[in-house]
Amino acid sequence: MVSYFYLNRKIKKDSVYRMRKGFTLMEVMIAIAIVAIIAAVVGPGLFRYLETARKSNAKSTLRVLEGAITLYQAQVGQLPTNLRDLVKAPREEQLKKKWEGPYLKQKEVPVDPWGNKYQYRITPQGENPYELYSYGPKGKGTPKNEWISVWDEG
Question: What is the pTM of this model?
Answer without folding.
Answer: 0.71
